[in-house]
Automatic annotation (TrEMBL):
UniProt cross-references to Pfam families, sorted A to Z: Inositol_P
Location relative to the cell: Cell inner membrane
GO BP terms in the entry: 3'-phosphoadenosine 5'-phosphosulfate metabolic process; sulfate assimilation
Listed InterPro entries: CysQ, CysQ/Inositol_MonoPase, Inositol_monoP_metal-BS, Inositol_monophosphatase-like
Species of provenance: Marinomonas spartinae
The protein, known as: 3'(2'),5'-bisphosphate nucleotidase CysQ
Binding residue positions for Mg(2+) 2: D90, D93, D224
């Protein structure tokens, strides 16, 4: 998988995401980020819109026959329900972190076929780190996951859980790890440490073996999870519902996700058992 950086399709997609990162960082340096409120009261900035335009133009050139579903460009379900193959894009995942200027935001691009993410790319503009995962061979791309930083590439995979268990928590959404889940994990592992991060960085850190678990009990949308799910699955992990089922995309009128967690297969039974004892629909 490490040689994927020489594949022309990967190189073209990487250029698109790098170009989007360039326009984001140009705006990030400004005093005025162009912050507005959308109809759902979530923030949007000039960087969200500029990155959307760059990615949309790039994908339309790379794969003109494949439609794009973006957070900043949502087609009605009557139209997109006919799309068996589509791109799902979040031009700027972690807008609140962008506004806070803490650097913890990403760009997410996923290719979804029949509801399943078959490849995903996530890029962190402030650190120049990128992640790419393929779950089903497409355009001759090999199955697996890779991380790049500048010109350095390495294959990545989930780590086997060990002490201390590292839990990624959200920087801006939802509470810390529930105390009773922490106690459940301590029944097997001596230490549980929490590490807050923003956006899809959490899932990518788990995919590369830096952390073990992320529990998300607040709202997300399909563009928040599709790309990281492909990377996590390609690295040998799972992003699943409280029932242990992987997310499927563009299958419903709503684009909102339910609760989910990210982990390896060895740690997952502990979380699934904990969920059985709790109200899975509890709001944060």
């Amino acid at each position: 998988m490490q040689d994927v950086n020489h594949h022309p399709f990967f190189q073209a997609l990487q250029k698109i995401i790098h170009d989007a990162a360039d326009v984001i960082m140009q705006i990030y340096q400004r005093a005025d980020l162009g912050v507005e409120q959308k109809s759902d009261d979530s923030p949007v900035t000039a960087a969200d819109l500029a990155a959307h335009n760059v990615i949309l133009a790039g994908l339309q050139t790379l794969t003109p026959a494949i439609p794009v579903l973006s957070e900043e460009g949502v087609a009605p379900y009557s139209e997109r329900s006919k799309w068996s193959l589509l791109w799902i894009v979040d031009p700027l995942d972690g807008t609140k972190e962008f506004i806070k200027r803490n650097g913890e935001f990403s760009i997410n691009i996923a290719l979804v076929e029949n509801g399943q993410p078959i490849l995903g790319m996530v890029y962190l503009p402030t650190t120049s780190e990128g992640y790419f995962g393929v779950t089903q061979s497409y355009q001759g791309l090999p199955i697996g996951a890779v991380k790049w930083h500048g010109k350095d590439f390495e294959s990545i995979k989930m780590r086997e859980p060990r002490d201390p268990i590292i839990v990624m928590t959200s920087r801006s959404h939802g509470p810390a790890l529930p105390a009773d889940l922490k106690e459940t994990l301590k029944g097997t592992y001596d230490q549980v440490r929490e590490l807050p991060k923003g956006s899809s960085i959490k899932g990518c850190r788990i995919a590369e073996g830096i952390a073990d678990l992320h529990l998300r009990r607040g709202p997300t949308s399909e563009w928040d999870t599709a790309a990281q799910q492909a990377i996590i699955e390609a690295a040998g992990g799972m992003l699943v519902t409280p029932e242990g089922k992987p997310f499927r995309y563009n299958q419903r009128e709503t684009l909102l996700n339910g609760h989910f967690f990210v982990s390896g297969h060895e740690l997952a039974p502990h979380v699934l058992d904990w969920y059985q004892l709790h109200d899975k629909d509890e709001e944060d």
